[in-house]
Amino acid sequence: MFLGLDFGTSGARGCVIDAAGGIAWEQRTAYRNPEQQTPDDWRTALYTLLVALPEDIAAQLQGIAIDGTSGTVLLCDAALHPVSAALLYNDNRARPQAEQVQAIAPAGHAVCSATSGLVKFLWLTQQPGHGQAAHCLHQADWLTAQLSGQAGISDYHNALKTGYDVEQLCWPDWLLALPHSHLLPKVLAPGAMIGPIRPEIAAHFGIHPECLIHAGTTDSTAAFIAADVNETGVGVTSLGTTLVLKQLSTRRIEAPEFGVYSHRYGDLWLVGGASNAGAGVLRQYFDDAQLAALSAQIDPFQDSPLDYYPLSKAGERFPVNDPCLAPRPLRLDSGQVTPRPASDAEFLHGLLQGLARIEAAGYARLAELGAPALQRVISNGGGANNDVWRQLRERLLGVPVSSAAHSEAAYGSALLARTPA
Q1: Do 17 and 54 touch, CB atoms closer than 8 A?
Q2: Which of 161, 181, 167, 334 is nearest to 256 (CA)?
Q3: How far apart are CA 275 and CA 254, in angstroms?
Q4: Do 164 and 156 touch, CB atoms closer than 8 A?
Q5: pLDDT, tens digit, for every residue of 131-174?
Q6: b/e map of 388-416 (b: 16 or more CB within 10 Å)?
Q7: 297 φ, ψ to 5°?
Q8: pLDDT of res. 224
Q9: Beta-bridge partners for 76
Q10: pLDDT tens digits for range 341-357
Q11: If 86 and its partner were Cys, which of 2, 74, 351, 368 is the partner (CB 3.0–4.6 Å)?
Q12: Taking residues 183-193, what's their average pLDDT?
């Protein structure tokens, strides 16, 4: 049995698979406040999922791997106690540090964004109290270390936006010249074996004492792994809290001015970008039952007259990179939303169409930058279950859209946990 743990934008999920890839167990837990999540919240979610494991499954676990939100970082001491706040994936407070990085990094590097892991690392090491730090870790790194007991280890998917050279497989010299670069982690391939689980963790949760802990990945890459795509021309859209597009390419594409970057993925490159828009905006207005009922009233083959760019707050990363982009519709100080039609179904139609247009613009951006022509799209995440939205997206994308057989990132991490030692 192999356990994958996904720490996304709103909560954590666990998935156990057998050697053949069949799902043996799934569970999820939500954060108390997704907008202000802390390492304590992550650890609570981790332990909540581990304690929920059925005894017989826990006793048979052979591997565990964890994915986390890309670009979420923190400083911790040698005992893994946080000595800084955790800066989340969409935190863009480090704009002055982004300018510092732009002055020394190669042109067009993924670290040149205000939300990159490297500029957050610089911001954190320029705050009071950083002298107690022994490690700068990504979310998945810190959580993985809770299980392995080995701090200071990352993977090259999480480390990409912190400046790791995924072609040469090393930290580049220009980055190592920065102050406090000794805090950066050792980087392994996603799925690489780190070591056995800590004996006290195994005993407490009834996990097999020889269960191996594997290097993880980012949440959106885990979702791509779960979709089991191995050919170019196939896009994978994650319809979670945020909207993430990825597709395989024979060439590496980096365009931080548009929020586009590439992960190393075997002999290919996994190119894509993540919008701040997504299904999280829908949750601001409707619950599951309302979404289902209202979607049934929408004709996906008709355009909505509403021109929406559904952001939860100002700022966008991809397919345009504009930290000041205003959301449409606009939420006023009074709590009212404008423009909003009287009909909830018309309002939802406008939101779904706005998100579909962002997706279409995203794949068009990837093609413009040299990605293979899009042939079809596979969807995962909670939004993949809305068939009206699927048909609307299919019309605007102009290619077939289907749902992944396994739509959760936790399944992708479970596949990483199955990586041979």
Answers
A1: no
A2: 161
A3: 16
A4: yes
A5: 899 999 999 999 999 999 999 999 999 999 999 999 999 999 99
A6: bbbbbbbbbbebebebbebbbbbbbbbbb
A7: -95, 0
A8: 92
A9: 82, 135
A10: 999 999 999 999 999 99
A11: 74
A12: 97
CA 216 remoteness from chain centre: 12
One DSSP character per residue, 291-332 reads HHHHHTT--TTS--S---B--SSS-B-SSS-BTTPPPBSEEP
Please give the sequence-ordered ranges of beta strands (E in DSSP) within 332-383, or none if there are none: 337-338, 376-380
Q: What is the DSSP string of 7-65?
A: E-SSEEEEEEE-TTS-EEEEEEEE-S-GGG--HHHHHHHHHHHHHHS-HHHHTT--EEE
Query: What Å distances lie between residue 336 and 144, 291, 325, CA to CA?
Result: 42, 20, 19
The pLDDT confidence band at residue 407, using thresholds 50, 70 and 90, is: confident
User: Which distant-in-sequence residues (6+ apart) come within 8 Å of 107 by Cβ?
Assistant: none
- pLDDT digit string (tens) for 63-100? 999 999 989 999 999 999 999 999 998 898 988 999 99
C-alpha to C-alpha distance for 408 and 381, rounded to whole angstroms = 6
- Cα–Cα distance between 109 and 101 in angstroms, integer? 10
- Inter-CA distances, 61 with 53, 74, 281, 409, Å: 10, 29, 37, 19
State the residue for tokens 């609570």: 44
How many other CB atoms are there within 10 angstroms of residue 21's CB atom? 14
Within 67-172, residue ranges assigned H as helices are 95-104, 117-125, 139-148
d(CA 238, CA 30): 19
DSSP, collapsed to helix, strand or coil, labels residue 393 as helix
The candidate with the shortest Cα–Cα distance to 240, out of 290, 281, 271, 270, is: 281
Distances (CA, A) of 158 to 81, 140, 163, 258: 20, 8, 10, 19
- Report DSSP state, residue 198: P
Question: pTM of this prediction?
Answer: 0.87
